[in-house]
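Question (not urgent): is this output format expected?
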Amino acid sequence: MLRGLALLECVAAGTNDVKGIATRLNTPRSTVHRMLNSLAAEGYLHHVPYKGYLLGPKLIHLGMRALEQRPLVALARPHLEALAQRTGDTVHLGVTDGAEVFYLDKIPGTRGLEMRSRVGQRMPLASTGVGKALMLGIPPSRWRDLYREAGEATIAGSDRPPPVPWAKYETQMADYLRRDWVFDLEENEVGVRCVGAPVRDISNSVVAAISVASASQYMPNDRMAELGPVVRATAHAISEALGWKR
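Got this back:
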């Protein structure tokens, strides 16, 4: 069985002829040829005359099933718990839902701070730490529309602070894009600051984001700058669990 898996890995890596596979596996060509024929007969490989072997449809099906069976929350939870324990602050996990972030998980901090975020809640992308991190996977040409929608939500909800001017916001987002983490400087909730980072999958697409949030007195500028790489490293660890490679 292990030799069969090693053979499939060879083909996936681009070695698709009997001679090359036999050399890499240090296995007789006759044995490799027999294994290739068996795997092709079962649909795990596909043989193209004069070109060699390619991964077959059954592996594509299994790959899709593997993605379905690896729920994001379950994979992310140990990393979120470790981050919450390390920082003592509230940790969030969210995904994009239109122009909003949908919160999938929340681990409360140990400082006794109550904030309005909760699992199952939606908030504007452009005014939240998790949301801004998700926006790093959205073309910058769409940022202004999301910024405008967040501003309209601010008008509708008087407890939200007014947004920063667009020119300043755009400059901040460009800076966040370069370093791959973001700040929420009390833009969603007065007295609460966040540091967020995007989570990517095997296709390098941003599929989720995380954030560390706390009261502003626990989040001075220098601490937020220190937390940026920490939050990004946690997001990278979750991304790697989803198949992403640096």
